[in-house]
Design goal:
With about 120 residues, this protein is mainly alpha-helical. The chain folds into two domains: about 70 residues, no CATH class; about 45 residues, no CATH class. Helix content is about 50%, strand content about 10%. It contains four helices and four strands, in the order ααββαββα. The strands form two sheets. The chain has a two-stranded antiparallel ribbon. A two-stranded antiparallel ribbon has the order 3-4. The N and C termini lie far apart (about 90 Å). The relative contact order is 0.08. The protein binds zinc ion (2 copies).
């Protein structure tokens, strides 16, 4: 006895056929969705709306681990400080500056820019 996921895994050609039928506007009783497996990345056809993996027992756990690892890598990746240009490892995912001093400097410059623009204007008149 195989479950529906396993059946779909074994019958991709059949599902693809129905997917393409629907694309061409032909009548089919199956609503087939096309997606990329989050685990192995290959194209998979399914009638299950919430499906993310070609076969959970095959890619589910593996895919989840891979995604976690990828996310952690993205978080750990060095960024370039917008003030001093040095690469740094952000502690927060939205960090833009390597340190508080740089963040404050950037803030002060953005304030001074508008302020000095006003000053120039005043001096000219
Ligand atoms: Zn897969
Ligand atoms: Zn910096």
């Amino acid at each position: 006895m195989i479950n529906h996921s396993e059946w779909e895994y074994e019958n991709q050609d059949y599902l693809k056929e129905h997917y393409e039928k629907r694309l061409m506007g032909k009548d089919t009783h199956l609503f087939v969705r096309k997606f990329h497996c989050k685990g192995c990345g290959r194209v998979f056809y399914t009638t299950i709306g919430t499906k993310k993996y070609c076969l959970y027992s095959l890619c589910g756990n593996h895919g989840y681990q891979k995604e976690l690892k990828w996310r952690r890598e993205q978080e750990r990746k060095d960024r370039i400080c917008q003030t001093c240009g040095n690469p740094f490892t952000p502690k927060r995912s939205d960090a833009k500056f390597c340190c508080n001093a740089c963040r404050q400097k950037a803030y002060r410059e953005s304030v001074t820019d508008t302020a000095s623009g006003h000053a120039d204007h005043l001096q000219q008149s």
